[in-house]
Amino acid sequence: MTKMLTPRLFADDEGVVRVGEGLLARSLPRDEWTHEAHLAATLYLLLRRPDLDLDRDLADIIRRYNASVGGVNSDTEGYHETITRAFLHGVRLFLAEADRSAPLHRLANELLLSPMGRRDWPLRFWSRERLFSVEARRRFVAPDLRTMP
Distance between CA atoms of 42 and 24, rounded to whole angstroms? Predict the structure, then answer.
């Protein structure tokens, strides 16, 4: 069983916007690119940036950001296709039931406290071995434990 970590929550909408736009502009400090920031940025982009096609663009957005802050996108670190796709699906699942009229930071915090916001959420569907394989990092691989909702 994975120890549940308490997520760092957002105090205001500006914090969520800062993360989302900082990702796009590649201006977000590397140490702020946390699990919470990944999910808040995805939420922000889905809700406030309809000009972007995240199914097409999110991988390159994250890869370019990683490279801009000195990160490496390789077989062992940086961008991970399957995890990104799993959480993109999870954020969409969350939004399908959420009150989209709520303040952005409240939505981000509710997401982070939901099952889809947990760091280990993908492990409900993928075995650790499959999810953390080089193949899953490079390209989307289907779940091997159960189908995603």
Answer: 11
CB 123 within 8 A of CB 132: no
Those residues whose C-beta lies under 8 Å from the C-beta of residue 85, and which sit 6 or more positions away, are: 140
- From the list 1, 49, 55, the residue with the least C-alpha distance to 24 is 49
pLDDT at 2 over 60: no
Measured CA to CA, the distance from residue 54 to residue 92 in angstroms comes to 11
State the pLDDT confidence band at 5, using cuts at 50, 70 and 90: confident
Please say whether the beta carbons of 120 and 7 come within 8 A: no
Q: 10 Å Cβ neighbour count for 60?
A: 10
* Rounded-to-integer distance, Cα 90 and Cα 63, Å: 20
Separation in Å, CA 17 to CA 34, 59, 70, 130, 138: 15, 19, 23, 33, 29
Instruction: Provide mean pLDDT across the span 19-31.
Output: 98
The more confidently predicted of residues 1 and 103 is 103
Distance between CA atoms of residues 75 and 121, nearest Å: 22
% residues pLDDT > 90 (the chain): 96
